[in-house]
Write a structure and sequence with these properties.
Helix content is 27%, strand content 27%. The protein is an alpha+beta fold.
Length: 713
């Protein structure tokens, strides 16, 4: 008997699939029932001539019985199982989890790459390798793929959804996806493959990674304490990115299931409630082999596919290395339309919008940008630390290369931050920046509270702050990127109240296991910050989980950490500009803060006052301003409006419009008006002007910033 799944379990499953009893097999191969029982329990193996008769009884070839790397084709065929409508008449008009995210390939890249990082196999110290493949099908290739996914069986369900599309948000998306496929004669597939990952292990129905992804909602089963995900929502981005609501899956397992590891295949379809051929259907459907243990053998479960099947489904993998391939059928990128040129005439009869959301070259570019922006740290190595991640993107059309496979290089997307992290790994950081290219290191205390609402402090975790000079390729300067164990960028923030004339910089904050697994309270910091992240994992702040597990004031510890980080950054960068740059003195001359010299009557109400300003000229010619406001004592502070004006020698000062106005600390912005936090003594806000409305070039102007009571009129 050749290598493969053990003969006994394999034979038992084949009898179930063929709906054949042990007695019936014994009669077919002319042996006793006890002999068949001995084969199944592993107490004996059949002779070669008996194996030939077993193959005939199962209506399969001799090689299938010898290798046992797939199921026989006898018995229950692969098909779609649609969940019946609820007996109580309840209806779900779509998967609510999918509405937590936009149909955006950049969001998809963030969520799926984070999941792959969380499932990396750490024992071999190799990175998890993630590849995104965009593949547009047309003509015969599209026809063959539709046959492979049994489109004729799905078509009535899509028709039912299209007929009620005007009443359903999900239905409108699906209807547009189906029409695009048939009217334009094309279909975009987006496949995400990971290697050196755990794969979808576990039973089809019981607790495990497979059921968490394929069967359940809002369940997160992560492999390590430093995992990024915690809500079980990230997988919904796969279906949200499919205009057809269809995802196919092929997983190679790190732990055998049913004695097998390769080509565990299943498909899941997410449609709204529908009525087809006189029967109601609840929503989801699965492509698989009917489970003989389910009532009427109706429920579909995963199956062990052969190599030809995974090729026809565009799910064939490069190697037998553990991991999973997700194929998004009908991928679209609605968020990319925000970056396209608007149609000023409003004429979109040519379907340009649909062209935009399925432009595979634009999607390729946006995937690369997202991976470089969010996972640069996970792809960075140095010292004795290897990267956690390798990522690449490629684009095909009918099997031919449109854009060559592009490996994401963190030094291209985040050169300064990559340099900073590598210096930390190499042990080449300095205490203070004195030369270009250096990386300064400070430890910042992160004071962790006791859980359960108890008073007191658990301990102080020394977070690591790295600061270095900024480069043009980094994007916006003077930013802090914060990350923890899996090295995905979580929080991006500016530094309020920077002194004038500082050199442009970039900073990295390493917290939890990112600061080092042996650092005090690293694991506790991971747990605390993970609970402080929303489903998007893009900031740290007050969440329901943080309140329930710690206290309603626990998020103040994060605010204190931010204050400590900003203070450390300002201390490191507060030095004169190097010669050749735009000096701080020049900007100070161009910036005016009106001061009232007249004495106030003691009975007059005290108003908030501007107390500090920082200004720079952005890449687009806009003024970028950070302002601090000194707040008087009082329970109710009046609302104030920041107004930016051009200083002129005579006549009224032209007013500039804000392109952006955001609160940083101690206030909030509502319709351009600052409303201050009761009890706060200082507030900070940040804004940038609309360069398109500047009457003259910004470098030739002087600026006046005023704080006016009320609506500022």
């Amino acid at each position: 008997m050749e290598a493969g799944e053990d003969f006994g379990p394999w034979l038992a499953r084949q009898l179930k699939l063929a709906r054949m009893t042990q007695t019936q097999l014994a009669e077919a191969v002319d042996v006793t029932r006890a002999a068949v029982s001995a084969w199944i329990t592993g107490r004996a193996t059949p002779r070669r001539e008996t194996i030939e008769r077993i193959a005939q009884a199962l209506n399969t070839d001799l090689a299938t019985v010898h290798t046992r790397t797939t199921d026989t084709l006898a018995g229950l065929p692969i098909g779609w199982y649609h969940r019946p409508g609820h007996d109580d008449g309840g209806r779900e008009l779509g998967n609510a989890a999918a509405f937590a995210f936009d149909a955006d390939v950049q969001v998809l890249a963030r969520e799926t790459c984070q999941n792959s990082l969380d499932e990396r196999l750490p024992l071999n110290d190799r990175p998890v390798r993630v590849r995104y493949t965009l593949h547009e099908l047309t003509g015969g290739a599209l026809d063959d793929f539709r046959k492979a996914i049994l489109w004729d069986d799905l078509h009535p369900h899509y028709t039912a959804v299209s007929e009620s599309a005007s009443q359903q948000k999900v239905g409108r998306v699906v209807d547009a996806g189906v029409r695009d496929m048939f009217e334009k004669g094309r279909l975009v597939l987006l496949r995400i493959d990971d290697y050196n990952a755990s794969g979808l292990t576990g039973d089809d129905y019981d607790d495990g990674k497979f059921s968490a992804v394929v069967r359940r909602q809002l369940e997160s089963l992560k492999s390590g304490a430093g995992a990024g995900g915690s809500y079980g929502l990230g997988k919904a981005t796969l279906w949200a990115t499919s205009a057809l609501g269809l995802v196919l899956i092929n997983s190679t397992l790190s732990v055998p299931h049913e004695g097998r590891t390769e080509r565990r295949v299943i498909g899941r379809l997410e449609l709204p409630w529908r009525f087809v051929d006189g029967r109601p259907y609840a929503g989801p459907a699965w492509l698989g082999r009917p489970d003989p243990d389910s009532p009427g053998a109706a429920v579909a479960r995963s199956w062990w596919a052969d190599e030809e099947t995974v090729k026809r489904l565009y799910l064939d993998r490069d190697s037998d290395e553990p991991g999973t391939s997700f194929l998004i059928v009908g991928a679209h990128d609605v968020a990319s339309l925000d970056q396209s040129t608007p149609d000023l005439d409003g004429d979109d009869e040519d379907g340009s919008d649909n062209e935009g959301i399925r432009d595979i070259e634009a999607m390729h570019k946006r995937l690369v940008e997202a991976l470089g922006r969010d996972f640069w740290a996970a792809m960075t190595s140095g010292g004795n630390r290897l990267p956690l991640l390798e990522a690449s993107v490629r684009t095909l059309r009918n099997g031919k290369v449109v854009v060559e496979e592009q490996k994401v290089d963190p030094t291209e997307h985040q050169p300064s931050r990559t340099r900073a992290l590598r210096a930390f790994y190499d042990g080449t950081t300095v205490d203070r920046l004195t030369e270009a290219g250096q990386v300064a290191l400070r430890t910042v205390p992160f004071r962790l509270p006791l859980s359960g609402g108890r008073r007191g402090m658990l301990g102080t975790h020394p977070a690591v702050l790295l600061v270095t000079d900024a480069e043009d390729a980094d994007g916006a300067p003077n930013q802090v990127h914060s990350l923890r164990g899996n090295r995905m960028t979580i929080k991006k923030s500016g530094v309020a109240g920077l002194p004038l004339g500082v050199n442009a910089f970039q900073a990295v904050l390493l917290v939890g296991q990112a600061a080092g697994e042996s650092v005090p309270f690293a694991e506790e910091a991971e747990e605390f910050l993970r609970a402080a992240e929303p489903p998007e994992h893009d900031r740290w702040g007050q969440t329901e989980e943080l309140t329930l597990r710690w206290s309603h004031t626990a998020h103040h510890r994060i605010a204190r950490l931010t204050t400590e980080v900003n203070a450390a950054v300002k201390e490191l960068v507060a030095r004169p500009k190097r010669s050749g740059g735009q000096g701080g003195a020049k900007l100070r001359k161009a910036l005016t803060v009106p001061r009232k010299t007249a004495s106030r009557r003691s009975s007059a109400p005290t108003l908030p006052e501007l107390d500090g300003l920082d200004a720079s000229i952005g890449a687009g010619g806009e003024w970028q301003i950070t302002a601090e406001v000194k707040l008087p004592r009082g329970d109710e502070l009046p609302a104030m409006t920041p107004v930016v004006l051009l200083d002129v020698r005579s006549g009224s000062r032209p007013k500039l419009e804000w392109a952006e106005l955001v609160a940083v600390d101690g206030c909030e912005v509502q319709d351009g008006v600052l409303r201050f936090t009761p009890g706060a003594r200082r507030a900070t806000f940040r804004g940038s002007t609309d360069a398109a409305g500047h009457p003259v070039r910004t470098a030739l102007t002087r600026l006046v910033l005023e704080l006016r009571a009320g609506q500022g009129e």
